């Protein structure tokens, strides 16, 4: 029902981080439903080519905007690109992540992760949420991750930012639905994207379910307006239930630590624990 979708979330969606991977698929499925688009990425290539291909294939207006979502003036830059264009759906997909020991990543990298993953969605949800509430219609999608359901070693900062997205999005689902705005947070498991491939996971000893991006976006679009958050994929829903409901918290964190060390054994040297720092119960 592209017409109903367009009148609820149109005329245009903004996909923040939409040049490759999951964000590119968000842009594709929204174009297929008849929405015009503004697609944001940090680099020109392959953003422009993707936008041109979508416009050609689906006959919608697709604009590209090269913006670093970590910029201090990101909101001004987005507004300057948009001018008078009306945004009916915001998909904040971009994220920064670092796989490794917390102490090994420099502080600037950690703060950049906070800017892209937390400050960016907060600013854009504030700005576009107000405009949507004034119109009495619209939607906001935030991306989260299974890693946010408990502390996740080796991606500690990233997982914490994804918890921020989940808690922010779920609260906004309740607040904004009374104003006609649908908010959904997508708690994704591993997906075959350039971001995932770049982490070079070794799946020979432990292989988590890895989804393609198409069903993730399809399930998310089916859930928009119906529920505060979803976990796409049956295997991921089982993992989420195990980690957040069935296992004691301590076991859940330890299980994630073991899984992450198995996936990233080559990249991450196990940190020696200085004597005298372990708790007596360990
Ligand atoms: N892949 C997974 O396994 C997985 C699992 C759970 C959750 N997620 C979540 O799903 C979302 C998408 O993940 P993905 O793997 O598809 O990511 P990805 O392959 O790394 O792509 C990220 C997109 O965001 C853009 N981007 C990143 N930093 C940006 C910045 N500072 N300014 C502007 N654009 C920026 C990238 O454009 P440029 O290349 O131009 O920077 C790209 O278009 C993320 O929110 C992630 O947390 C992913």
Proportion of beta-strand residues:
5-15%
How would you name the CATH homologous superfamily? Answer: NAD(P)-binding Rossmann-like Domain
The chain-level structural class is alpha/beta
CATH top-level class:
Alpha Beta
**Radius of gyration, CA atoms, in whole angstroms:** 19 Å
- Taken together, the total number of domains comes to 1
Can you write the helix and strand succession as a string?
HEHEHEHEHEHEHHEHH
* CATH architecture grouping: 3-Layer(aba) Sandwich
What's the end-to-end separation, in Å?
A: 56 Å
Mean pLDDT: 94
- What's the CATH topology label? Rossmann fold
Overall outline: globular
Distinct compounds present: NADP nicotinamide-adenine-dinucleotide phosphate
Number of strands: 7
Q: List the uncertain runs.
A: 276-282
Largest sheet report: 7 strands, parallel
**Helicity range of the residues?**
40-55%
Helix count from the secondary structure assignment: 10
Strands in their spatial order, largest beta sheet:
3-2-1-4-5-6-7
What descriptive keywords fit this protein?
282 residues, 13% strand, seven-stranded parallel sheet, alpha/beta, disordered C terminus
Explain the overall architecture:
Helices cover 49% and strands 13% of the residues. It is an alpha/beta fold. Residues 276-282 have low confidence and may be disordered. The chain has one domain: Rossmann fold (3-Layer(aba) Sandwich). A 7-stranded parallel β-sheet has the order 3-2-1-4-5-6-7, with helices on both faces. NADP nicotinamide-adenine-dinucleotide phosphate is lined by residues 17-23, 40-43, 67-70, 93-96, 116, 143, 145, 188, 190-191, 193-196.
């Amino acid at each position: 029902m592209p017409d109903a979708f367009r009148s609820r979330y149109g005329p245009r969606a903004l996909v923040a981080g939409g040049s490759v991977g999951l964000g590119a698929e968000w842009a594709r499925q929204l174009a297929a439903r008849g929405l015009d688009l503004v697609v944001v990425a940090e680099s020109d290539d392959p953003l422009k080519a993707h936008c041109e291909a979508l416009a050609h294939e689906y006959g919608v207006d697709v604009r590209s905007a090269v913006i670093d979502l970590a910029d201090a003036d990101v909101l001004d830059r987005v507004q300057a690109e948009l001018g008078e264009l009306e945004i009916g759906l915001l998909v904040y997909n971009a994220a920064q992540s670092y796989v490794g020991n917390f102490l090994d990543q420099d502080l600037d990298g950690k703060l950049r992760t906070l800017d892209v993953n937390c400050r960016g969605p907060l600013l854009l949800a504030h700005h576009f949420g107000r405009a949507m509430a004034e119109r009495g219609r619209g939607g906001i999608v935030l991306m989260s991750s299974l890693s946010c359901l408990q502390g996740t070693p080796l991606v500690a900062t990233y997982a914490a930012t994804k918890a921020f997205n989940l808690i922010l999005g779920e609260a906004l689902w309740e607040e904004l639905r009374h104003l006609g705005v649908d908010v959904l947070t997508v708690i994704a498991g591993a997906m075959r994207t350039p971001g995932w491939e770049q982490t070079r996971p070794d799946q020979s000893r432990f292989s988590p379910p890895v989804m393609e991006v198409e069903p993730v976006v399809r399930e998310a679009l089916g859930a928009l307006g119906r529920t505060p958050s979803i976990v796409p994929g049956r295997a991921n829903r089982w993992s989420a239930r195990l980690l957040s409901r069935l296992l004691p918290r301590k076991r859940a964190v330890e299980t994630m630590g073991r899984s992450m060390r198995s996936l990233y054994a080559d990249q991450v040297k196990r940190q020696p624990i200085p004597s005298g720092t372990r708790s007596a119960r360990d």
